[in-house]
Amino acid sequence: MSSKTLHCGELIKRINDIIEKNANNNLNKEDITVSQFKMLIRLNETSDGSFTLKELEKYFGVAQSTIAGIASRLEKKQLVYGYTDSADRRIKHIKITDAGRAMCINARISMEENERHLLSVLTEDEQHRLHELLYKIYNAIR
Question: Contact, 127 vs 119, CB < 8 A?
């Protein structure tokens, strides 16, 4: 099939599928899934490395049971730990561990290498322009 027969949306989807497959392959080496990694990254972005399950549920737009399952698997790997709120025992917090922070650093390096490889077929100007155009589309549809 010629690339000219694919619409932009299909090209974007296929590129995303390949990127996700490569990310999963790299993260599998670390025994972690993309969903688990996304939670680690979100926790790592905060100054104290912690969120409530409810906050994570809202941020990722998934069911509480899904977030609880991801957190539980990360806790078994000692990448996060959970604790209840001292003021309200119904509220559970998830906090990233030092091992989780190290995982974020290593995975981020791998992702940056993969992106450099992905964009290596473009000149620096083309890479910059692609980034601008993707942001323009993203901002228009969100």
Answer: yes
